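In this supplementary section we document a worked example of the pipeline. Step one takes a protein sequence of length 131 as its only input; no multiple sequence alignment statistics are reported here. Step two produces a three-dimensional model, which step three serialises into structure tokens for compact storage. The input and output of this example are shown verbatim.
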Amino acid sequence: MSIHVEFVSPERVIFEAEAKEVIVRTSDGEIGFLPGHVPFVGVLAVAEARIHDADGSTIHSFAVHRGFVEIADDHCTILSDVAEAAADIDRARAEIAQSRAEEALRASRDDADAIAALQRANVRLEVAKKA
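The serialised model returned by step three reads:
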């Protein structure tokens, strides 16, 4: 048994495959889906999404910057405006974004934009390590 996974953005299909497990973080916490999971819809957090191939040989890792996840009848759809596969992440760019966000937070600890930027940069860097 497997789950058909479609990972999409408004512009393109990011990833599509059969999987034995899908793990994402929602606004309520991390959740994993196995074949036969009950129907579920959730709001994605800024975090890593992991998709385990149907044969278990490969784990695909993505940096996700919000969106939605839905599963029903062994079909999982992940919708995100911004998502990057580990191999596609520009580490240098992510490090620059991280430094800028940290600098902005030193100037103002309550800067919501800087907090969000730092969170996105940290997720991108963590996922990039898995490439």
